[in-house]
Specification:
about 525 residues; alpha/beta; 16 helices; about 40% helix; globular
């Protein structure tokens, strides 16, 4: 087992998540387009994404639609009205519906439009999501339309058609957490089986670190699915830069010279977003030096003044510079590097640096770039300092394992998750039996009771497909044995689920992905409660 192999596995999982999301959106029957938040003037923001239904309905190819303005689709003469509504949609965080014409490649058609927003922590719009479908006849469009002088349904509604997309996203996050559980739990099992001096220990620790970081992606997916926004917290940007270096440069021929000021200020940021910004900049630096080299990362405190020319409020900032000695950027391309869709790479999307700038701007910071052909490039990130020094989390600390005894029934339809959970519990000293469905679990529990070999606790996956759900299975087992000790596990729990489940007789809740250490503690607490 090597770090390179484990990280490639993580990267492949991230690619799969992206593929699953695009597939889910393309399966939505409504046409979906995602546009930017600016400019708020005719012909409006540009289209960043269009699903297959949008391409089919408009008759346009993806390269024709993506990059065009929303004014090229929306009813002529009414685009200004739409643009004027966008800030209100973001402010109210509601969904706006209207009936307007959709411009096709050849002609136009009346459509029911639904507009909603994706906002950042401050409530500022990041993007707007527009869905539209043809209005088949006047009766279907509703009597409200006839009473409106402009012919449209101009009302905010609580429910959005994008709920289907949110549900699909939650499903993707759940599946991803199942895969990540298999990876992370097996890594923790391998860590328990090796000594600190074992040659395999370091690659295992590196892969565990990467798996722990991958959990952040799932959290972002679930945040979107729940309709929430990411939370900010005090972060040590020096240690965040160290994490980004490990993730972006591992296995490559590029080394890093990392320098962190001893008195570096803290910053209040959304950790995952800033990690992605730094990872993107480091990946660009690595790609700029295909023959290898050294990238320098410098984290320091700076005071920004009005005359700095940075277009930032005066005050204390943390600066993170990423400097490579690669091919450099042509002078004529420098003003465009942060433009959406601009790229000089044959396989690039042109969205990486645009996203980096958007994220830092939303944090009331900025990014600068200087470059010279065949000399190198330096990107410098500025983020407002909080002045507080957060606790350092430089190393990945999995914690200690807690041994136990008794018989545990593991119920999970995913073979990889079920097998690794069984292996971990056996290593901890438990007797373990397993089932892949609720029906099988119920039969096994009843059989063990009849044999006089009762089950001490049940590790129950709550989202069993087909047949009985996890919760239904627990309720049926409780009919046989009112003293059953169920521990709920899932790749997706709603907010407040832990309190609800514990109030209904569950003795533990274990979100996926989990490690051997976490499983051992939850199971020990469940059996001692």
């Amino acid at each position: 087992m090597t770090t390179h192999v484990q990280l490639n596995s993580q990267i492949e999982q991230l690619r799969l998540v992206n593929h699953y999301l695009r597939t889910a959106i393309n399966q939505v029957e409504d046409a979906v387009v995602i546009i930017g938040s600016t400019p708020l003037e005719v012909p409006g923001p540009r289209i960043y994404f269009a699903n297959q239904a949008a391409l089919d309905l408009t008759g346009l190819a993806e390269q024709e639609l993506v990059g065009a303005t929303i004014g090229s689709l929306y009813e002529p003469g009414r685009v200004g009205e739409l643009i004027a509504k966008l800030p209100l949609v973001a402010e109210k965080r509601r969904t706006f519906q209207t009936e307007k014409l959709l411009q096709l490649k050849n002609g136009s058609i009346a459509c029911r439009w639904t507009i909603s927003s994706l906002v950042d922590l401050d409530g500022s719009p990041l993007h707007f999501v527009l869905t539209f479908r043809p209005v088949k006849d006047q009766a279907q469009s509703g009597s409200t339309t006839a009473s409106q002088p402009d012919g449209g349904v101009e009302a905010f509604v609580e429910r959005s058609r994008l709920e289907a997309l949110a549900m699909a996203t939650a499903g993707v996050a759940h599946d991803f957490n199942n895969v990540l559980t298999t990876i992370q739990a097996n890594l923790s099992l391998a860590r328990l089986a090796t000594s600190a001096m074992d040659r395999a220990r370091k690659p295992i620790e590196e892969a565990s670190f990467a798996a722990e970081s991958a959990k952040a992606l799932s959290k972002q997916l679930l945040t979107f699915a729940k309709g929430g926004v990411p939370t900010r917290k005090q972060v040590d940007l020096g240690q965040l830069a160290r994490r980004a270096v490990r993730l972006a440069l591992v296995g490559s021929n590029v080394k890093c010279d990392l320098s962190i000021s001893n008195d570096l200020w803290g910053a209040e940021v959304e950790e995952t977003q800033i990690l992605q910004v730094l990872h993107n900049l480091l990946t660009n630096a690595r790609q700029a030096m295909p023959k290898g080299g050294v990238v320098r990362v410098l984290c320091e405190n700076v005071l920004v003044h009005e005359e700095s020319g940075l277009n930032l409020e005066s005050g204390p900032y943390v600066s993170i510079a990423v400097r490579d000695r690669g091919c450099g950027i042509a002078e004529e391309n420098l003003p465009r590097v942060f433009e959406p869709f601009f790229t000089t790479k044959s396989t690039g999307t042109g969205m990486g640096l645009a996203t980096c700038l958007l994220v830092t701007n939303r944090h009331k910071g900025t990014i600068t770039v200087t470059s010279k052909l065949n000399v190198g490039t330096e990107f410098k990130v500025y983020l407002p300092a909080s002045g507080l020094r957060p606790q350092s989390q430089e190393t990945f600390d999995p914690g200690e394992v807690v041994a136990g005894d008794g018989t545990v029934l593991v119920v999970d339809d995913q073979d990889g998750v079920r097998h690794v959970a069984v292996s971990i519990l056996q290593a901890l000293g438990y007797d373990v039996v397993s089932a892949l469905s609720g029906e099988e679990a119920l039969q096994m529990y009843a059989m063990r009771m009849h044999m006089g070999k009762p089950i001490s606790a049940v590790l129950m996956d709550m989202t069993l497909p087909g047949g009985m759900s996890g919760d239904e299975t627990v309720q049926e087992i409780r009919r046989l044995d009112p003293s059953v000790r169920p521990v709920a596990t899932s790749g997706y729990f709603e907010d407040g689920a832990t309190e609800q489940l514990m109030g209904r007789g569950y003795v533990g809740v274990l979100p996926k992905p989990y490690t051997a250490e976490k499983l051992s503690k939850v199971m020990a607490a469940a059996l001692s409660s």
